[in-house]
Amino acid sequence: MNITLKEASKRFQYEWIFKNLNLELNQGDSLAITGGNGSGKSTLLKCISGAIPFTSGHITFQQEHKNLPSGDWYQHLAIAAPYLELPEEFSLKEVIDFHFNFKRPLDQIQSKELIEILYLDQHIHKAVSQFSSGMKQRLKLGIALFSDVPLILLDEPTSNLDKKGIAWYTDMIQKFQKDRILIICSNEPREYEFCKQKLVLEDFK
């Protein structure tokens, strides 16, 4: 997988969120997108995912040196973010099984094994609506990291996690990045200190 941004810019009405951003990411790269609150980190992540368009410039996804149509990008990425909702009427197992109807599980992991890795095995049949915010966050991160895709997008990955959850997140990244492209939006160094590249969004205003 290769991702290239050329002169990528995003504007909402009369305000430029970022301008003239050039970036290239290849298999195994890790990028931290940093910036103050409201600087546009999540907006850039959504643009990279294809959820919203750039105002100008362009982005290309290449797989085996062939451009991927924008309508197919979602098949090659997984995302965990505070603004993405889980189906709260589902049980834990139902959420995982539902997700993996659309994405291949990494290393053919089974839902029971994943639930143990998330240390949620006491809650397998509990509705997600009854989960704490930290439990929901571990679930979001787990189904993203254990999707067999070449691009992982994480926005504020340790939000709502306690000390044990933060240590778990760091361990999961080290074990399961697996030569994929990893992009993390964050203001917390603990969430991205292992990233090989760093982009400060205020530099592109």
Q: Secondary-structure map with pairings?
A:
Layout: E1 2-12, E2 15-26, E3 30-34, H1 41-49, E4 56-63, E5 66-67, E6 77-80, H2 92-99, H3 111-117, H4 133-145, E7 151-155, H5 163-176, E8 181-185, H6 189-192, E9 197-200
Parallel strand pairs: 3-8, 3-9, 6-7, 7-8
Antiparallel strand pairs: 1-2, 1-4, 4-5
Helix pairs in contact: 4-5
Can you give me a brief rundown of this structure?
This protein is of the alpha/beta class and 205 residues long. Helices cover 27% and strands 27% of the residues.
Model description:
Helix content is 27%, strand content 27%. The protein is α/β, with parallel strands linked by helices and 205 residues long. The protein has a five-stranded parallel sheet with strand order 6-7-8-3-9, with helices on both faces. A hairpin with a 2-residue loop joins β1 and β2. α4 (133-145) packs parallel to α5 (163-176). The longest helix has 14 residues, at 163-176. The two termini are 28 Å apart.
Q: Mean of the pLDDT scores?
A: 95
Overall outline: globular
Strand content: 25-35%
User: How many strands appear in the DSSP assignment?
Assistant: 9
Strand order of the largest sheet: 6-7-8-3-9
CATH class: Alpha Beta
Percent of residues in helices:
25-40%
- Estimated structural class: alpha/beta
The SSE order reads: EEEHEEEHHHEHEHE
Uncertain runs with pLDDT below 50, 5 residues or more?
A: none
Work out the helix count.
Answer: 6
The largest sheet, given as strand count, sense and whether it forms a barrel, is: 5 strands, parallel
Q: Which architecture would the CATH scheme give at its second level?
A: 3-Layer(aba) Sandwich
Count structural domains: 1
End-to-end distance, in Å?
A: 28 Å
Q: What is the subunit organization of this protein?
A: single chain
What is the radius of gyration computed over CA atoms, rounded to a whole number of angstroms? 17 Å
Question: Would you give the CATH topology?
Answer: Rossmann fold
What is the CATH homologous superfamily assignment? P-loop containing nucleotide triphosphate hydrolases
